Amino acid sequence: MELLKVDNLTKKFKNKIAVNNVNLSVQKGQLVALLGHNGAGKSTTISMLIGLMKPTNGEIKLAGFSPNDAKYRQKLGVVFQNSVLDDDLTVEKNIDIRAHMYKNLDIHFKNKLIDDFELKNIIHQKYKTLSGGQRRRVDIVRSLLNKPEILFLDEPSTGLDIQTRNKIWEVLNNLRKSMNLTIILTTHYLEEAEDADFVYVMDKGNIVANDTVNDLKIKYTKDKLTLYSNNVHALKQHLDIDVAEETFESLTININDHNDAINILSKIKDFITTFEYKRGSMDDIFIALTGKEIQ
Ligand SMILES: Nc1ncnc2c1ncn2[C@@H]1O[C@H](COP(=O)(O)OP(=O)(O)OP(=O)(O)O)[C@@H](O)[C@H]1O
């Protein structure tokens, strides 16, 4: 079922077009990534989707509602790049202030979130004394208290260590299963986009690709096979395929998949000492589409 539909979304700041005719379609329960460099237009897009910024042009519908409908806002959870919590209040107080804003708050769900995101032993600490990872976990709990249908995460993992990032995603993935939660995230982390059901790549305000991770890989990446040899010259003569990179001890070739690799390896096995096989990555996709590497 289509939950969010965005048509020709555009935002101009004076003469600058920050978001240019963006179309999005998000199905309920999907994890959708908006991937792009600094300044690509991701945050501006999110700001319009959460009703914080008025589009210059275009239409946004969430389950049929527009951003200025109260029902639209009730369906949202938002984690901003910069926290909106009160530095001088404890974690508990910050969460409770938000919880009191909801008439039908599910206390069990609130407690479950506090457990799942492991906030119990920091619950009496002031927000300003928390580490970046702890803050982010509190921010996410705050955004989920109202059991949103759709959660917007604007660069949720920036500056977090790998363990915190994994923990956050473990809990979010469980919520996706149990609540059929839909998540839209903007990210610079390719690994995060790798798990997405669908990816929109943004560059200079435009969507330059929209596809599943698998299809993006098929279209824009090649697997690489690096062959190491004591006699690179002889190896090259036995390969009937173009060489992408050459060093004094190795040749690297672009191939379609592991079946190609097995065929090639069986033909030239007597000429190599060892090999490396590397599958195409999201990085390759980004470079192919924008000419730049993402961080
Ligand atoms: N209020 C504003 N006034 C003028 N220009 C703006 C404004 N907000 C954003 N921009 C410009 O719009 C473009 C898109 O910015 P945006 O913050 O959406 O990018 P982003 O992809 O989210 O980048 P980042 O990854 O750094 O957060 C940038 O060139 C930015 O300078």
From TrEMBL:
Keywords: ATP-binding, Nucleotide-binding, Transport
Domain ABC transporter: start-end pairs: 4-229
Molecular function GO terms recorded: ATP binding
Coiled-coil ranges per UniProt: none
Record has Transport as a keyword: yes
Gene3D superfamilies in UniProt: P-loop containing nucleotide triphosphate hydrolases (3.40.50.300)
Top-level taxonomic group: Bacteria
SMART domains on file: AAA
Similarity comment text for this entry: Belongs to the ABC transporter superfamily.
The protein's name: ABC transporter ATP-binding protein
Gene source species: Apilactobacillus apisilvae
Organism taxonomic ancestry: Bacteria, Bacillati, Bacillota, Bacilli, Lactobacillales
